[in-house]
Design a protein that fits this description.
single chain, alpha/beta, Peroxisomal Thiolase, Chain A, domain 1, 2 domains, ten-stranded mixed beta sheet, two-stranded antiparallel ribbon
């Protein structure tokens, strides 16, 4: 079986616009939450989010392109270029056809559709510009990367709601296993900061109501949790076959050992309260990676901070790991970066790889123990661990469960 390694990473988050800053601030327990600046929220009850700050798209693409693509696509290009630079990989005529792109998103350019619809209502159909559709379409996040960097291999956009971000990484792993490419740029990008999406989430009920204290609003696994804080951002990894990576002397960050997808078949937004689908994904991922429950050291949890998710995820971990569940070091970076939906899993993958390499797990900030969640949550302060393997969880609306497994790379 072809071994697949991560050889480069990129990140654009509310607490850092590159991997090094992102990781440093995760360990410091820095929150990226604050009052929304993207639009006027004066009379809205849910008015906080984790927004990306000080981002200049023209650092990664020309000004004309930046004007014509959605913010999520700008993010996607940024992290792809970061990851390629980190991997020391140049794409040209000699290798472009063997490099693919699998970038995920939950909502793509939905805010572009919102803006276009408002324009039609206010000014009529003649006011609508020609770039609404190419900017709004979900697959733009992958296609723009392909165009910008010259990747001519498989190009695909995965959309699995909140599980999109590292589904693309698992799918990229399979593309490489099948020999369809030598390199895959994989990850997730999301920017849904608009009145429509925030109002809709607010009406749905999963958002935290602690708007007077944004930095302490998201409290995964805590007894006083009351919902997630919306986020935006992107993360990407360079996946390479072992043969290709070693031939060019690439640095190996971590090994991708596989993963598992399952469906809850339960509810369009709520998770199965018994964690059945999530548990089956965890069990299947261990089987795919040929590991035992006791082999896993770190769990980068989905950990949204909603009452339903955190309990169901706890039950799933107990069912999948048995007694070994109590030895896991479990954390949720959403406590700091918010829930970036289609990018969330990819952000957690970057954090997991850093944790494996550095031997330290970032904290779940704002944590107060919940008696019903009796597993080991890495709360408020980072913890050192000599970790060999990490699992990343993501559970999306509609009951889509994705679990990926990563191993520390050989030196």
């Amino acid at each position: 079986m072809t071994r697949v390694f991560i050889t480069g990473m990129g990140a654009l988050t509310p607490i850092g616009n590159d991997v090094a800053t992102f990781w440093q601030n995760l360990l410091a327990g820095k929150s990226g939450a604050g009052r929304i600046t993207s639009f006027d929220t004066e009379d809205m009850p849910h008015n906080i989010a984790c927004e990306v700050k000080d981002f200049d798209a023209t650092q990664y693409m020309d000004r004309k392109t930046a004007r014509r693509v959605h913010r999520s696509s700008q993010f996607a290009v940024a992290v792809a270029r970061q990851a390629l630079a980190d991997a020391g990989l140049t794409i040209d005529a000699s290798n472009g056809e063997r490099v693919g792109v699998l970038m995920a998103t939950g909502g793509g350019g939905i805010t572009e559709i919102e803006a276009g619809a408002l324009e039609v209502v206010r000014k009529g159909w003649r006011s609508v510009g020609p770039f609404v559709v190419p900017s709004a379409m979900a697959n733009a996040v992958s296609c723009i990367i392909s165009i910008e960097v010259g990747a001519k291999g498989p190009v695909m956009t995965s959309t699995a709601a909140c599980a999109s971000g590292h589904y693309s990484i698992i799918e990229g792993y399979h593309y490489l296993q099948r020999g369809e490419a030598d390199v895959i740029i994989a990850g997730g990008a999301e920017s849904l900061m608009s009145m429509l999406t925030m109002a809709a989430f607010g009406r749905m009920g999963p958002l935290s109501s602690r708007t007077d204290d944004p930095e302490h609003a998201c409290r995964p696994f805590s007894v006083d949790r009351d919902g997630f804080v919306a986020g935006e951002g992107a993360a990407a990894v360079i996946l390479e076959t072992e043969e290709h990576a070693r031939a060019r002397g690439a640095r190996l960050y971590a090994e991708v050992l596989g993963g598992k997808l399952t469906g809850d078949a339960f509810h369009i937004t709520a998770p199965d309260p018994n964690g059945d689908g999530a548990a089956r994904a965890l069990i299947g991922a261990l089987q795919m990676a040929r590991l035992k429950p006791e082999d896993i050291d770190i769990v980068m949890a989905h950990g949204t901070g909603t009452v339903l998710n955190d309990i169901s995820e706890t039950l799933a971990l107990k069912r999948a790991f048995g007694a070994a569940a109590y030895k896991l070091k479990i954390t949720s970076i959403k406590s700091m970066v918010g829930h970036a939906l289609g990018a969330a899993g990819a952000e957690s993958v970057v954090a997991a790889v850093c944790a494996l390499r550095e031997g330290i797990v970032p904290p779940t900030i704002n944590y107060t123990p919940d008696p019903e969640i009796d597993l080991h949550i890495v709360g408020n302060h980072p913890e050192k661990v000599d970790a060999r393997y990490a699992i990343v969880n993501a559970f999306g609306f509609g009951g889509q469960n994705v679990v990926a497994v990563f191993g520390r790379a050989p030196t």
